[in-house]
Write a structure and sequence with these properties.
The complex is a heterodimer of chains A (about 450) and B (about 220). Chain A is α/β, with parallel strands linked by helices and about 450 residues long. In chain A, about 35% of the residues lie in helices and about 15% in strands. Chain A contains 15 helices and 16 strands. In chain A, helix 2 crosses helix 14. The longest helix of chain A has 25 residues, at about 375-395. Chain B is about 10% helix and about 25% strand. In chain B, strands 1-2-3-4-5-6-7-8-9-11-10 form an 11-stranded mixed β-sheet, with helices on one face. The longest helix of chain B is centred in the last third of the chain and has 14 residues, at about 185-195. Classes of the chains: A alpha/beta (about 450), B alpha/beta (about 220).
Chain lengths: ~450, ~220
């Protein structure tokens, strides 16, 4: 209702009022899935400077523009070779259904890339359908065992997540099925809290020893990733390199989650754009850029996002929320079901509830059966194919024969905020706020 | 018996040989460990490894099937995430002993520092001395037996792990309470104490475990954390 004369408060708009009233009624903070919904500077605020007089473009769709990436070249005997610069981020069985995990594995495998386990261990479904699987090593160590460690293609030590740097995981009781409870060695139906810090090491010096242990257990075969939630990224990346990482994964605050307090999602961390630039600077200062590979995640939606992340210095990107949308999350097909839950297609973020009509973020057998893992895998592969083609299109327009040849010089910023965060000149100028004169 | 001297060989060479061993030879003796980290980790065969001296972090980490005996002290995380087998520390252990371990038996003849049995998932731990603060934090399953005293916040945020302490407990953590000792507990304790060579009687212990009040988020419990 927007009658003339009715003036909505900017400070206390309808959403704020609704949240105050909900908090007063329920006495518990709002827990939800998805990632940050607030506006913040992002890759949309950058554009490519396509070739013209001073740059020579490549013919679209005809001339070769390679996309392969090798991850883990620093210490691991067996680095991972992926065919596209896009990987699937860690999402747990528990947060997601077994069918969803299988679909992610199928889609990633069809495109020659990797997928990642999550807080809850490795399921046979995802190992069986993922040609390249990264095994997460989390503070909770749910389901962690050396047999699965040896089966993995890489190990990702998780220090944090972009949606909640400094916070642990959460899986509410309605999603702790018999199988999830058994895998995590927990009673069925409890509200499970995952620890926010590792139980047997503290700080980067200890982490170096922990990495040494994991390498010894796996005979130095597996690449070891360190995943950090974007906060003090410049320092964290330097410490991760010193600790011995082969690959560093930086997850910006737009990164998704299965269940976290809204206040955490919206108010902790820094945007992907700022974190990526800090990470690249840290690696370059240590002469480790391209030697320790950098994967960035948090709000990657299109080939444009992929290309811009690579141009800023990432070796690859990782997608989570977008992959779930590709599987069918928030599909209009389930509009009636969303409405019954008080939501709507395009708005559904109650991953914590286990009532996902699309059968993805649920452990309910009937809902989970709605997702056909074969069809879901095909959709994800299609989506990854489009992302790759779009990335190549932009790279060719900038005259690059490999997507890794994209560089910051190919970019311009549309806003002062993005220029400052990404250290990319404002379009039409050579001005980077804080770095150079106008 | 195979003898490996870490003054001559590297930890990498030792672990690689142990990973290849698969039970033959079945007995190994490691000399001059010199506080090295990650000694005898990732074993997956019924071998016995005796270590003559002190070791650093994560000795016998993720152990499966093997028996590892440390004739000295251990650094952080001895037998972390052990799945099965036996790890016996004849000296003291630093923090996070037996962290997240799923199975097997960890015996510590001396004291264990803070966070002993943190996030334990099924292991049995017997400490003949005392344990430091936050031991069995978020303990999910298994048993922690402490023949001496326990530091502050024992069993904080505990799930289904069982704790038995003979001496004094400085304080209990959130949701950890004293529980009745039933005949089945006494019987189990008697067996594990004998197996561990601990000079203590089951009747001298008090059992602690989860009150299960914090298993689901309730606003009324906010002040408990």
């Amino acid at each position: 209702m927007n009658k003339p004369g009715l003036r909505e408060s900017h400070l206390y708009d309808r959403n704020v009022i609704h949240e105050i009233q909900r908090a007063a009624e329920e006495g518990i903070s709002d827990i939800r899935g998805w990632g940050a919904k607030r506006w913040m500077p992002h890759f949309d605020d950058l554009v490519f400077l396509g070739a013209s007089m001073s740059r020579y473009p490549l013919e679209g769709y005809r001339e070769k523009c390679a996309t392969g990436v090798t991850l883990g070249t620093r210490f691991a005997k067996t680095p991972i070779e992926i065919k596209i610069p896009i990987t699937i981020a860690g999402m747990s069985f528990g947060a997601l259904s077994a069918n969803a995990k299988e679909a992610l594995g199928r889609g990633a495998t069809a495109m020659g890339t990797s997928t990642t386990t999550g807080d809850g261990g490795m399921t046979p479904e995802e190992r069986g359908h993922s040609e390249k699987l990264v095994y997460q090593y989390l503070p909770s160590r749910y389901g962690m065992n050396p047999d699965d460690l040896r089966k993995a293609d890489a190990i990702e030590i998780v220090l944090g997540q972009g949606a909640k740097p400094g916070g642990g995981g959460m899986l509410l009781g309605q999603k702790i099925s018999d199988r999830v409870a058994e895998m995590r060695t927990l009673p069925k139906g409890i509200d499970q809290r995952s620890a926010c810090r590792h139980p047997d090491w503290t700080g980067p010096d200890d982490l170096a020893i922990k990495i040494e242990e994991l390498r010894e257990i796996t005979d130095w075969e597996k690449p070891i990733y360190i995943k950090i939630g974007a906060a003090r990224t410049y320092y964290d990346v330097k410490l991760a390199v010193k600790a011995g990482a082969d690959v560093i994964v930086v997850d910006g605050m737009q990164g998704g989650t299965g269940a976290t307090q809204d206040v955490f999602i919206e108010h902790v961390g820094i945007p992907t754009l700022a974190a990526l630039r800090q990470a690249v600077e840290a690696l370059q200062e240590m002469d480790m850029h391209r030697k320790v590979q950098l994967i960035v995640s948090g709000g990657i939606r299109s080939g444009a996002d992929v290309a811009k992340a690579l141009a800023m210095g990432a070796d690859a990107v990782s997608i989570g929320t977008a992959a779930l949308i590709a599987l069918g999350c928030n599909s209009p097909k389930y509009q009636a079901d969303y409405e019954k839950l008080g939501s709507s297609a395009g708005f559904f973020d109650d991953y914590q509830a286990g009532t996902d009509p699309a059968g993805i973020s649920t452990q309910d057998p009937e809902l989970a059966a709605r997702l056909d893992p074969v069809a879901g895998g095909r959709k994800l592969a299609n989506y990854l194919r489009v992302l790759t083609l779009e990335t190549q299109t932009l790279a060719r327009a900038c005259g690059k024969s490999h997507v890794h040849n994209l560089e910051p010089e190919d970019l311009a910023a549309l806003t002062i905020e993005a220029a400052a965060m990404a250290k990319i000149p404002l379009a039409g100028t050579n001005w980077i706020p804080g770095s150079a004169s106008f | 018996m195979k003898i490996v001297d870490l003054a001559v060989s590297s930890v990498r060479e030792l672990n690689a040989a142990l990973h290849e061993a698969r039970g033959d030879p079945s007995r190994w003796r490691v000399l001059t460990p010199g506080g090295a980290h990650a000694v005898a980790v990732g074993l997956n065969a019924p071998v016995t490894v005796e270590i003559e001296g002190h070791v650093g972090y994560y000795c016998a980490g993720m152990n499966q099937l093997a028996t590892v005996v440390v004739e000295g002290n251990c650094g952080t995380g001895v037998a972390e995430n052990m799945m099965s087998g036996l790890v016996h520390v004849k000296g003291n252990a630093s923090q996070s002993a037996g962290a997240t371990a799923h199975g097997g038996l960890l015996i510590i003849d001396g004291d264990a520092s803070a966070r002993c049995g943190i996030s334990m998932k099924g292991v049995d731990i017997v400490v003949k001395g005392s344990v430091g603060h936050m031991s069995a934090f978020m303990g999910q399953a298994g048993n922690l037996v402490v023949c001496g005293n326990a530091g502050d916040a024992l069993g904080d945020s505990i799930y289904e792990a069982r704790l038995f302490v003979r001496g004094e407990v400085a304080s209990l953590g959130a949701d950890c309470v004293k529980k009745e000792m039933l005949p089945k507990h006494l019987e189990w304790l008697a067996a594990v104490l004998e197996k561990s060579g601990a000079n203590a009687k089951p009747e001298e212990f008090t059992r602690y475990g989860s009150a299960r009040n914090l298993y689901n988020f309730k606003v009324d419990h906010a002040s408990s954390y």
